[in-house]
Amino acid sequence: MLANKRMLALGTGAVAVAMTVTACSSGAVQSGNGSTGGAGGAVTLKVATVNNGQMKDMEKLKTEYESANPGVTVNFQVMEEGDLRAAVTADVASGAGQYDIVTIGAYETPQWGANGWLVDLTPDLQADSSYDVNDLLPPVRDVNSYDGKLFAVPFYGESSILMYNKEVMDKAGVTIPQNPTWQQVADAAKKVNTADMAGICMRGKPGWGDLFAPLTTVVQTFGGNWYDSNWKATVDTPEWKEAVGFYKKMLDESGEKDPVSYSFNECLTALKEGKAAMWADASVAASMLEAADSPVKGKMGYAHMPVDKTKESGWLWSWNLAIPTSTKQKDAALKFVKWATSKDYIKLVGNKIGWSNVPPGSRTSTYSIPEYKEAAKAYAPITLDVMSSVNPKQPGVNPQPWVGIQYVSIPEFQDVGNQCAQLVADYLANRGTIDDALSKCQSVAQAAGDKHKK
Amino acid sequence: MTATTTTPQPAELEDVKAATATDKRRVQKKELWRNRSLLLPAVIFLILLTQIPFLTTIGFSLTKWNLLYPNDRAFAGFDNYTSALTSGDLWPSIRATVLITAFSVTLAVLFGLLFAVLLDRQFRGRALARTLMITPFLIMPAAASLIWKYSMFDTNIGMINWVLQSLHLPVVAWSTEHPMATVVIVLTWQFTPFMMLILLAGLQGQDKGILEAAQVDGAGAWRTFTWITLPHLRMYVEIGVLLGSVIILQVFDPIAILTKGTGGTKTLAYLLYERAFIGLDVGQAAAYGVVTVILTIIVATIALKSVFKVFMAGGSR
Questions:
Q1: What is the pLDDT of residue B73?
Q2: Where does the ABC transmembrane type-1 domain start and stop, copy by copy (chain B) (predicted)?
């Protein structure tokens, strides 16, 4: 009997591991059915994409493309960001060729381009004058290039801006300049902070894409950065201490009460409900604050991301379309990518779905379409202004060995950022000291940096 | 004579007619195999689903394999185990898992007992009350965590803080200041109905005659409860604790949604998730998985052994 019980325990354990493994390799398992298009002129394109509003609009509009290109069928596989990253990485890295077009972030493009996993789009796009590759916003082109070659084209892009409730500011007699400093913002936040309304809402949820998206830009404008130009980690520096200390002080004095629970969506709710007066976050939030059902519609003011030692401090992110080298229908895929990121597509979205749904931050020309200017007049000019003036090659005070702003484009960064975010969160919650958090983070970051030293 | 014996001794059988015996044995064997073959699909299914992935995991754990460096895949020996055991993540994680499980299970049993006693009597709308009480256990763990995050713990719109504010008490930032308590509260809320169901079954299985006899003997309600009902419930409490612990040991959702593993709430399941999906390090994640399984087996063996003993003793009670 006892032996049976032990077997039961063993079995239970084995099931636990089995589940772990299937979860771990879910991306790798589904790599069997390579597409068999091309036969008899009929082509089926498989597109892996992320479940954002703009991508879903693209799926709705694919029939337009299919009717303009007889014989072509476009199949979308829409996934959650994390799932997409795992599935696409596994497929592209193993060369399985399951997808003809993949949606990837600005963080992946240069890494994958360097690995030789993506088709270099530069020659084809430059040859096509009607596509007008130079119309794509220059900083967005920079983050999606490696070694001067464009490996992905932006579908939409965003930066970060400061958003504030004008009514609250006016009542307190505070004016926010177009290019504020962090000190000004912290002072203003303190002034408008009440028991009912936080002065400012900032992300505190531990995660490389949560807390560290804004915090990295704060560190960079305070003169710090993750690595110096020789991939030596520089986390245990006075600049980091000043920046992280500033972030905590601002949150303690006038931030939301429960920072570990707060990220983009929570802050968005707080702003809408009048529970926070200011918010520095992704520029795409502006379109949500100005949406028809938003209680603060028309009451918001927008400014550049606050700075300290640099001129601009906005981040830069884009979701892009890329073609894996493993595809068997490169030409058809290229044609679709060009269509989905063309000037005509933007107009198509405007006419068919609505001008406020147009994918922003990809093309300069979008911002001169009259209908879009009217629909997004509150935030379109500042978005374009910030997006064209940020410098992803050197966002901080000192040069850095990668291109990108609120992240480090090395594969280990997700892990480094996550572990450091948890350490910083402990400091934010008064469970540890800043020196302890930063010195631990330094050793985590250094271990990753060592792999990239030349 | 011997040939007609219905149940012959084996020795006799071989003495008389060896051939028949072999045939008989062959028939028996045939029958046995037919019986077994009926089980075979289930057995194959079980092996495919449990043992092969288990072996694969062991294989993975001996491999240097990070999804981000797909071309750099090689045999690593016990490197992954060394790094899992020396990285300093494992012991805090075991501690977090044990503490969260212990607190949640204990509190759930106490509350479960309370509600079971309350529901074990006749009153109007008892069926409705029971259904309502069971609801938390039927909600998906992720949904339960989200409900708590927004409608209970939130500093702006949460009910707990609304109550605190109405009483002029300071607002509590649950996830930031009390991460462990946050997770334990959600788990207790979810598992109280589970414990309640088991204990209620126990209470209803109690012989009413004994209770009446106690009453006749002059025992008060409290003494009847502590001296008769509680000993009777012991077995049910033990089952509840065992099952509850096994489920809560693998807890993931409240941590991923509420605390993100900060403040001593990084359980083994969450640690494993981080290694696999954020570190994308298949080898190391597999090593953590194997270590977790070994620990679970040790704990489960001890637990099952003691429970098994209790069952034996329970028979004589």
A1: 80
A2: 94-303
Query: Least CB-CB distance to B57: which of A6, A20, A259?
Result: A20
- Answer yes or no: do A310 and A321 share one domain: no
- Regions of chain B where pLDDT drops below 50: 1-8, 11-14, 314-317
**A23 lies in some domain:** no
Domain count within chain A: 2
Closest CA to A383 of A236, A270, A284: A284
Nearest to B49 among A13, A18, A257 (CB): A18
Residue A213 class from Cβ within 10 Å (0-12 exposed, 13-18 middle, 19+ buried)?
buried
Residues A139 and A260 in one domain: no
Average pLDDT, rounded, for chain B: 83
pLDDT digit string (tens) for A331-355?
999 999 999 999 999 999 999 888 8
Residues A152 and A187 in one domain: no
Asked if A142 and A171 sit in the same domain, the reply is: no
Instruction: Kindly provide the ipTM of the predicted complex, given to two decimals.
Output: 0.75
Report the topology of domain B90-265: MetI-like fold (1.10.3720)
- Rounded to two decimals, the pTM is 0.80
* Residue A146, helix vs strand vs coil: strand
DSSP H/E element including A318 = strand A317-322
* CB interface of B with A, residues 207-266, below 8 Å: 246, 250, 258-263, 266
- Predicted local distance difference test score (pLDDT) of residue B21: 56
DSSP three-state, residue A250: helix
> What stretches in chain A show pLDDT beneath 70?
1-41
Query: Smallest Cα–Cα separation from A333: which of A351, A345, A321?
Result: A321
Q: For residue A72, what are the domain limits?
A: 39-157+317-377
Q: Which of residues 388-447 of A touch B (CB under 8 A)?
A: 411-412, 414-415, 418, 422, 425-426, 428-429, 431
- pLDDT value of position A369: 92
Which among A17, A270, A425 has the least Cβ separation from residue B289? Answer: A17
CB–CB contacts below 8 A, A to B: 158
Which helix H or strand E contains A427, and what residues bound it? helix A413-428
